[in-house]
Structure formats: structure tokens, C-alpha cells
Amino acid sequence: MRRPGIGEVNLGALSGAVIGAIGGLFAVGLPAAIIYHNPAMLLATPKLNLISFLLSGVSGWLIGGQLGPRVAGYNQRGEVVAGGAAGLIPVLVIALWGWYMVS
């Protein structure tokens, strides 16, 4: 089991940042789009979407960079999958916050 440093560059961090940033871009508007059946609600709050994009990308980098190598050891595919799954954590937190704000 590898113990990477905080913010270390690895494949888990990269995949976590990509998944976190792209998911974070739409995480705020997704609950409203589902509830109101209107896909235009995905981009209804551009400032919150940008803030969510930045926060999810950075936190996906940090979480994915820590969990990816620890879960997969020295297997690159496992590190990418674990980092990507860890990148979903901030996206889900922001989506749940968006769901709370809409309902």
C-alpha cells in the first residue's frame, strides 16, 4: 500500500479531478432539472456552477490522490478507477446540497 503525500501527482488524483470538475459543473442544477423536468435548469445558476466546478475539481484531486494509490497499490487501472470514484464524493455532496435547496 502506497502512502502518497497531500497533493501528490498521480493517476488517481488526475481521474478524481476530471470526474469531480465535470460532475461539479452540473451538480448544482441537476436536482432542479430533475424536479422541474427542465434540462435548462442545469445551467440556470452559472456562478454557483463555476464555484462548484472549482471546488469539486480541487477536492476531487485531493481525495482521489489519496484514495487511488491506497486502494489499488501499484495497479494503474485500479488507481484510475478508485480515483474516479473518489472524485464523485464532492459531486454527490454538492448535488445533495442542491437537492436540499430545491425541495
List keywords for this structure.
single chain, 4 helices, mainly alpha, 103 residues
Short structural summary:
The protein has 103 residues and is an all-alpha fold. The chain is built from four helices and no strands. It has helices at residues 11-27, 30-36, 46-72, 76-102.
Structure description:
With 103 residues, the chain is mainly α. The protein has one domain (12-102). It is 76% helix and 0% strand. It has four helices and no strands. It has helices at 11-27, 30-36, 46-72, 76-102. Helix 1 (11-27) runs antiparallel to helix 3 (46-72), helix 1 (11-27) runs parallel beside helix 4 and helix 2 (30-36) packs across helix 4 (76-102). The longest helix has 27 residues, at 46-72. The radius of gyration is 15 Å and the shape is elongated. The relative contact order is 0.26.
